Amino acid sequence: MRVLIVEDDPILQDSLIRAMRAAGYAVDHAGAGDLALGLLRGGGFDLVILDLGLPRMDGLQVLRQARADGCRAPVIILTARDGVEDRVKGLDLGADDYLTKPFSLAELEARARALLRRGQGGAPTVSCGTLVYDTVGRRASVGDEPLELSQRELSVLESLLFRLGKVVSKDQMIESLCGYGEEVSANAIEVYVHRLRKKLEPAGVSIRTLRGLGYLMDRM
Ligand code: CA
């Protein structure tokens, strides 16, 4: 899966690139609208993450031109909190989804997965034991019962569930939890994992602690 990240803020661009690479995608990036359009004309992208405020050519212009050129790749636009108008315009121009800054990297990964899966005709859910997670609605349920989770617990759940059977380090978890500009301590992660472990026990899902390495989610 090849992803194009279009973002001019170097810090955000860097964290987006690292998050998508860690999630297993091949990543290309552009920091200006005209460069993005050049790459899109070359084709071959499965997903585009597109910031709207860009130098030389803004994201909406890039989107309009790319669609006019026949680019069919799903596009997630990144918008400012007060950018309602941009969001509407973006969706009208053929964006598939949007995220409002600041957003968590776990959420971006979840939306990306959902779009990529939709492109392949599959259902946007992930399951383990009797736990079912809806990656679009961000809702977890055990059997038919919805599972009550805080936003933080939800992000921790996503970071573990999307790497099912693999070790997720505390640092990776902190990274996917903070997203952009929020501080989360390693101690807080322990608390969220502890709570989540209790809530997931009835679903037959275990979260193992691997000392010095991180956590691993799997069936019991
Ligand atoms: Ca920008």
- Which ions, cofactors or small ligands are bound in this entry? calcium ion
Structural class: alpha/beta
Roughly what percent helix?
40-55%
Radius of gyration: 18 Å
What letter string, H or E per element, gives the SSE order? EHEHEHEHEHEEEEHEHHEE
Number of helices in the DSSP assignment: 8
Domain module tally: 2
The fraction of residues in strands falls at 15-25%
Extended strand count: 12
Mean pLDDT: 88
Structural summary, described in words:
With 220 residues, the protein is of the alpha/beta class. It folds into two domains: 2-119, Response regulator (Rossmann fold), CATH 3.40.50; 125-219, Winged helix-like DNA-binding domain superfamily/Winged helix DNA-binding domain (Arc Repressor Mutant, subunit A, Orthogonal Bundle). 42% of the residues lie in helices and 24% in strands. The chain is built from eight helices and twelve strands. It has helices spanning 10-22, 33-42, 59-68, 84-92, 105-119, 151-161, 170-178, 186-200; strands at residues 2-6, 26-30, 47-51, 75-79, 97-100, 125-128, 131-134, 139-142, 145-146, 167-168, 205-210, 214-219. The strands form three sheets. The protein has a five-stranded parallel β-sheet, sandwiched between helices. A four-stranded antiparallel β-sheet has the order 6-7-8-9, with no helix packed on it. Helix 6 (151-161) crosses helix 8 (186-200). It starts with a strand and ends with a strand. The model has no long low-confidence stretch (mean pLDDT 88). Residues 8-9, 51, 53-54 line the site of calcium ion.
